[in-house]
Amino acid sequence: MMLQNSATPARVLGLYDEPFWKRLKQDGRLSLQCCRHCSTWRYPPGPVCQSCLSPDYDWKPVSGHGEILSWIVFHRSYLPEYSSPYNVVAVRLDEGPTMISNLVEEPPPGSVIGRRVALQPVEMDDGVTLPRFRLLD
How many CB atoms lie within 10 A of CB 102? Predict the structure, then answer.
Protein backbone atom coordinates (compact mmCIF):
# COMPACT_ATOMS: atom_id res chain seq x y z
CA MET A 1 0.00 0.00 0.00
CA MET A 2 1.51 3.31 -1.05
CA LEU A 3 0.42 6.74 0.02
CA GLN A 4 0.94 9.35 -2.62
CA ASN A 5 3.85 11.66 -2.00
CA SER A 6 4.21 13.76 -5.09
CA ALA A 7 1.25 16.08 -5.34
CA THR A 8 -1.83 16.97 -3.42
CA PRO A 9 -5.28 17.71 -4.76
CA ALA A 10 -6.12 21.40 -4.92
CA ARG A 11 -7.22 22.51 -1.46
CA VAL A 12 -10.20 24.72 -0.83
CA LEU A 13 -9.25 26.73 2.23
CA GLY A 14 -11.91 28.34 4.36
CA LEU A 15 -11.60 31.75 5.96
CA TYR A 16 -10.09 30.31 9.16
CA ASP A 17 -7.90 27.52 7.73
CA GLU A 18 -4.70 29.35 6.73
CA PRO A 19 -3.03 29.56 10.21
CA PHE A 20 -3.44 25.79 10.66
CA TRP A 21 -1.60 24.99 7.42
CA LYS A 22 1.00 27.77 7.85
CA ARG A 23 1.95 26.62 11.38
CA LEU A 24 2.11 22.98 10.34
CA LYS A 25 4.51 23.82 7.52
CA GLN A 26 6.66 26.24 9.57
CA ASP A 27 6.82 24.38 12.88
CA GLY A 28 5.96 20.78 11.99
CA ARG A 29 3.36 20.91 14.76
CA LEU A 30 -0.38 20.99 14.94
CA SER A 31 -1.89 24.20 16.25
CA LEU A 32 -5.61 24.60 16.80
CA GLN A 33 -7.91 27.40 17.80
CA CYS A 34 -8.53 27.47 21.55
CA CYS A 35 -11.37 29.51 23.04
CA ARG A 36 -10.14 32.35 25.28
CA HIS A 37 -13.24 32.11 27.47
CA CYS A 38 -13.83 28.38 28.08
CA SER A 39 -10.59 26.77 26.71
CA THR A 40 -12.51 24.52 24.28
CA TRP A 41 -10.39 23.38 21.35
CA ARG A 42 -11.87 24.10 17.94
CA TYR A 43 -11.35 21.85 14.95
CA PRO A 44 -12.11 22.50 12.22
CA PRO A 45 -11.41 26.18 12.82
CA GLY A 46 -14.36 28.49 12.82
CA PRO A 47 -15.68 31.91 13.77
CA VAL A 48 -17.13 31.06 17.21
CA CYS A 49 -16.67 28.50 19.99
CA GLN A 50 -19.08 25.56 19.72
CA SER A 51 -19.40 25.48 23.51
CA CYS A 52 -19.85 29.12 24.60
CA LEU A 53 -20.22 30.92 21.23
CA SER A 54 -17.35 33.29 22.04
CA PRO A 55 -15.64 34.70 18.95
CA ASP A 56 -12.34 35.09 20.87
CA TYR A 57 -9.61 32.52 20.40
CA ASP A 58 -5.87 31.94 20.25
CA TRP A 59 -3.94 29.53 18.07
CA LYS A 60 -2.14 27.11 20.42
CA PRO A 61 0.02 24.07 19.73
CA VAL A 62 -1.40 20.65 20.64
CA SER A 63 0.50 17.48 21.53
CA GLY A 64 0.04 15.75 18.16
CA HIS A 65 -0.83 12.55 20.02
CA GLY A 66 -4.14 10.75 19.91
CA GLU A 67 -6.07 7.52 19.53
CA ILE A 68 -7.55 5.94 16.42
CA LEU A 69 -11.34 5.96 16.56
CA SER A 70 -11.92 4.36 13.17
CA TRP A 71 -10.06 3.42 10.02
CA ILE A 72 -10.62 2.07 6.53
CA VAL A 73 -8.59 0.99 3.52
CA PHE A 74 -9.97 2.27 0.21
CA HIS A 75 -9.47 -0.10 -2.70
CA ARG A 76 -10.83 2.34 -5.24
CA SER A 77 -9.18 5.62 -6.26
CA TYR A 78 -11.39 8.68 -6.04
CA LEU A 79 -8.69 11.24 -6.84
CA PRO A 80 -5.82 10.78 -9.31
CA GLU A 81 -3.34 11.86 -6.61
CA TYR A 82 -4.40 8.98 -4.34
CA SER A 83 -3.86 5.63 -5.95
CA SER A 84 -5.49 2.69 -4.26
CA PRO A 85 -5.22 1.05 -1.88
CA TYR A 86 -4.77 3.75 0.76
CA ASN A 87 -5.77 4.09 4.39
CA VAL A 88 -7.84 6.76 6.12
CA VAL A 89 -8.01 7.10 9.91
CA ALA A 90 -10.13 9.12 12.32
CA VAL A 91 -7.90 10.23 15.21
CA ARG A 92 -9.19 11.75 18.42
CA LEU A 93 -6.45 14.08 19.57
CA ASP A 94 -5.57 14.04 23.26
CA GLU A 95 -6.99 17.57 23.44
CA GLY A 96 -10.39 16.33 22.17
CA PRO A 97 -10.94 17.25 18.51
CA THR A 98 -11.14 14.50 15.88
CA MET A 99 -9.08 14.68 12.68
CA ILE A 100 -9.35 12.65 9.49
CA SER A 101 -5.93 11.72 8.12
CA ASN A 102 -3.75 8.82 7.00
CA LEU A 103 -1.23 6.52 8.64
CA VAL A 104 2.24 6.90 7.15
CA GLU A 105 2.70 3.14 7.29
CA GLU A 106 0.58 0.27 6.15
CA PRO A 107 -1.86 -0.69 8.92
CA PRO A 108 -0.99 -4.00 10.57
CA PRO A 109 -3.36 -6.95 10.16
CA GLY A 110 -6.49 -6.70 12.29
CA SER A 111 -8.02 -3.62 13.78
CA VAL A 112 -6.08 -0.50 14.75
CA ILE A 113 -9.00 1.02 16.65
CA GLY A 114 -7.77 2.24 20.02
CA ARG A 115 -4.10 2.33 18.99
CA ARG A 116 -2.07 5.34 20.01
CA VAL A 117 -0.63 7.54 17.26
CA ALA A 118 1.67 10.54 16.95
CA LEU A 119 1.72 13.30 14.38
CA GLN A 120 4.07 12.70 11.47
CA PRO A 121 4.07 15.76 9.19
CA VAL A 122 4.79 14.74 5.60
CA GLU A 123 6.07 17.26 3.09
CA MET A 124 4.87 16.43 -0.38
CA ASP A 125 6.92 17.00 -3.53
CA ASP A 126 4.66 19.96 -4.40
CA GLY A 127 5.59 21.69 -1.09
CA VAL A 128 2.35 21.03 0.78
CA THR A 129 2.80 19.63 4.30
CA LEU A 130 0.13 17.16 5.38
CA PRO A 131 -0.65 16.10 8.97
CA ARG A 132 -0.35 12.34 8.95
CA PHE A 133 0.09 9.93 11.85
CA ARG A 134 2.31 7.00 12.79
CA LEU A 135 1.44 4.17 15.14
CA LEU A 136 3.07 4.17 18.56
CA ASP A 137 4.23 0.95 20.25
Answer: 21
